[in-house]
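for ur thesis appendix - XdhC- CoxI domain-containing protein. copy paste whatever u need, i formatted it the way the template wanted (i think)
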Amino acid sequence: MREILSEIAQWQARGEQVAIATVISLSGSAPRRPGARLAVSEHGELAGSVSNGCVEPAVVEAALQVIKKGQPQLLEFGITEEQNIEQIGLACGGTIQVFVERLDW
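the 3d part is after this line
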């Protein structure tokens, strides 16, 4: 989290709301481990990563909704037998759970 604190501090100094997305679990192969974080400002600025890009657009969209509504979300991304990699975007074939919450200071 230290690597994203300076950006969060800058956003908050400007009076912006911020959401944090955290990888809380994974199974199989995944690009980032539990504890990886992505911070999102209300204007869509990003710091950190939860997937090295493969599912981050969906996480950013959820984070912006969390900022607006204040309601945390639990997201899950992965591949089932009926789905293919192009549909999900998680090319590594694993499953990750990401918890998204608004920072209320």
